[in-house]
Amino acid sequence: MAFLPRTKQSMAAGLGLTLLWAYWPVLSDVAARWSNDPKYSHGYLVPVFALWLLWKRLRQAGPQADGQGSGAQWWGLAFLLPGIGLHLAGVYVYLDWLSEVSLLLSLAGLCQSVGGWRLLRIAGPSIGFLAFMLPLPFRVEIAMGYPLQHLATVAGTYLLELLGFCASAQGNTIVLNNKTIDVVEACSGLGMVVTFFALAVAVAIVLDRPLLDRIVVVASAVPVSLFANIIRITATGILAETVGGPIADVVFHTLAGYLMMTLAAGLIWLELKILSRLLVAVPVEGKMDIDLALGMMSSSVADKRRRKVPVGK
Fold this sequence. Notes:
The protein has 11 helices and 3 strands; from the N terminus they run H-H-H-H-H-H-E-E-E-H-H-H-H-H. With 313 residues, the protein is mainly alpha-helical. It is elongated.
């Protein structure tokens, strides 16, 4: 923690331990969702990446002087007080999501109180990325789950028919000759969307590419993850019709999650390769202006020297 002077390191440690004590029940509930809900199993990796990103940005920023940013530290109350208020409101009305979101505001207030705006700017991406470790509100899961479930059923049935298999959709069930595939809520693809969206944002943060490339990567996270889930369901139907039901069940419930994440990551890599061919990097505009100005100045000097040469010499 060399970024902060020693006089502020004890303050940061004290505030951090206080927040840890206050939010320990919230963090315990969130960790339980990571263990019991497959949609949020990526949550264990989110704090690890956030800490690594914070460490990297602190090293690039260099040490902070003892008085640097001290005038703006009282602005930390603008984040801490709403964070504490949301936490108390979430506990009072039994709405866990409010308490979970309040953690991000409290962390922002801690950084602002200790290191001013400079530390908040440095830690801001890490704090924002921690949002991916929080479970979605229950109403949002319900609102998104059924449409994605129906989309996966219809698209999977269409692909199976396109490949020559006899398949029909009855509700959220794909009926084949030898097997029926129930596209239940866990197979809607919502978990893959959440996980891969977090992965795409992480890639965009660390990617040394133009801003447009990063925006495209993040924007394509949802369609790519949905496409991967549809391929998963289609592959299960193909295996059920050609190899057998037990093997299809093993692939569908055990191997497909890892394989589809690999497929989605491969699609993002292919997307970056295509973008590198389509979008050509241009020189910095300022550098072009300087080079042009220098060229004009040199040509002007040469013209003046030619005019000073007497005629006949």
